[in-house]
Amino acid sequence: MFPNRKINRRFFAFLIFISSFFLACNSDYTLKRKGYYQIDFPERKYTTFEQQGFPYTFEYPVYATVLRDSSLFEDNDTPFWVNIDFPQFSGKIYISYKKVGPTDFDKLVNDAFTMTYKHTAKATEIQDSLMKTDGGLTGVWFNIGGNAATAKQFFVTDSVNHFLRGALYFDTTPNEDSLAIVNNFLQEDMKHLINSLRWK
Known about the structure:
Layout: H1 2-25, E1 46-49, E2 56-61, E3 65-68, E4 82-86, E5 91-99, H2 105-117, E6 123-132, E7 138-146, E8 152-157, E9 162-170, H3 176-196, E10 198-199
Antiparallel strand pairs: 1-2, 2-10, 3-4, 4-5, 5-9, 6-7, 7-8, 8-9
């Protein structure tokens, strides 16, 4: 008689455990939406980049730093290339400058389009649009959709003496959804740079 009571108690405890397990599995579950970190953007303020010997000047955000492009190892052909560094966003606008020679203009324009369209493998679309700056300069603005390494590029020129190109890159794996808000924020800073650009 006593052994049977022991078995019944064990069996009863097992039934309670199984019942609670199934009841827990039937509870309502709400999927969490995929999200990204909230980003607090700084107030827009600008300062002037005007360095001695450089053939151009422009305004850039106070929350960025302009650095000489050290990856070029003082190449004689690229002394006026700079990076506009945004440490808060792990991003950079790479600025390249070329002096336009008598036969260089078409090649510089073609090279700018070629470099932009190298992102076709990852891009869902590439839109280019002509622009004219407040200072009367002309150029092309590129919007690149998808998970390409860069989403915003441009070039500005007077077609006679000066040609300046810019491209925004981030030090992270490209993800259009997570970078969209930062791309849109920095796009305004890029356009301010373009409109404030002046040749010396």
